[in-house]
């Protein structure tokens, strides 16, 4: 379980907001009037008056795809002391999960948020488990006071992008060019 909280974003890490594929982001059990956009999108997530709220019970299941492969280092979740998330399970590259099968898979990491970390302080994750992340599923299992509604003011993901090097075999191509150029 990740327990170490960072006081500042580690050097070399960036906010991964620009690398989120918003066309594929989804949140199960969100209140229609208090959606995920309030907690994850730039401009909205900085406004403490806006939040993501659960609907039928305290649980939320969020899928965040990225537009390129990333290395996830830490997550910051801001919420209210009473209704903020408590147990958060993170799944790397497990797309299309639902409440019916979320417990069928072991999480890549589990964090238990305290009132201190709910102030938006980044929590360092098991970095080796988040090296080639194409999507992140966030399962908010419960909240601080076991109330029926969970409220999240901000979710921020920090890490780095990965660079893919493509090596092409040019031998056949070079040979055919040399053959063509001969007089």
TrEMBL record:
Residues 5-177 form the PITH domain. Pfam families: PITH. SUPFAM superfamilies: Galactose-binding domain-like. PROSITE patterns: PITH. GO terms for cellular component: cytoplasm. Belongs to the PITHD1 family. PANTHER family: AD039 HT014 THIOREDOXIN FAMILY TRP26, OS03G0795500 PROTEIN. This is PITH domain-containing protein. It comes from Salix brachista.
